[in-house]
Specification:
CATH architecture of the largest domain: Roll
Radius of gyration: 24 Å
Number of strands: 7
Number of domains: 3
CATH topology of the largest domain: Pnp Oxidase, Chain A
CATH superfamily of the largest domain: Electron Transport, Fmn-binding Protein, Chain A
CATH class of the largest domain: Mainly Beta
Strand content: 25-35%
Largest sheet: 7 strands, antiparallel
Order of helices and strands: HHHEEEEHEEHEH
């Protein structure tokens, strides 16, 4: 099993801004702006309370891993709001539910702990990118039980624990605004109930007007 150590970085954003990336930024005219961002500590390494709340409100996340051969793999993880847990300002964990039993992410993490979480909130047009190292835990049933969403019909097989090294928030540009079906249904039900209330009030006003004229 190969465990890759994180190289030291002058800035948190160096986890993504490699020398080649910075050279391309210079070539295309964006390096000065990102250099100022680096000096002002634009990216953070600790999860703030606001970001922790955002993470734990999500029902969907994309997990990226890389094999020992450098082959990337992206897999979707989902569950009810709260299935993602922020254990502290450097640690995210969630129960890994039984799926198609390919074990690509688990195998990649066994060889290469580098991982990335991509969270996209369509309703509020907000996205957060998180870099770090992750590991699968197969032998801690107490932790798995703690992280399982209450009442959720899924079988947890293991736990993924991610140590956060850096995170960044993207601008909302080009994110289409979409809403969950459950949220839309709830909003429509609330609207229909309000319409019924107003119709009942109108009918009562009409009855009162008739009685007054009589």
């Amino acid at each position: 099993m190969t465990r890759l150590e994180s190289p030291p970085h002058a800035y948190p954003s160096d986890i993504a801004f490699t020398p080649t990336v910075k050279a391309l930024q210079s070539r295309h005219g964006s390096r000065d702006a990102y250099a100022r961002m680096e000096e002002e500590h634009g990216w953070q390494t600790r999860l703030t309370p606001d970001v922790a709340r955002f993470i734990e409100q999500q029902t969907s996340v994309f997990l990226a891993t890389v094999s020992s051969e450098g082959q990337p793999y992206i897999q979707h993880r989902g569950g009810p709001a709260g299935f993602l847990h922020v254990l502290d300002d450097h640690t995210i964990a969630f129960a890994d539910f039984a799926g198609n039993r390919q074990y690509v992410s688990a195998g990649n993490l066994a060889d290469n702990p580098k991982a990335h979480l991509f969270l996209l909130d369509y309703a509020h047009r907000r996205r957060i990118k998180i870099w770090g190292e992750a590991r699968m835990i197969d032998d801690d049933p107490a932790l798995l039980a703690k992280l399982m969403p209450e009442g959720y019909k899924a079988r947890g097989e293991r736990v993924l624990v991610m140590t956060v090294r850096a995170w960044d928030v993207n601008c909302p540009k080009h994110i289409p605004q979409r809403f969950d079906a459950a949220d839309v249904a709830a909003a429509l039900q609330e609207r229909d109930e309000r319409i019924q209330q107003l119709e009942a009030q109108v009918a009562e006003l009409k009855r009162n007007a008739v009685n007054t004229r009589a």
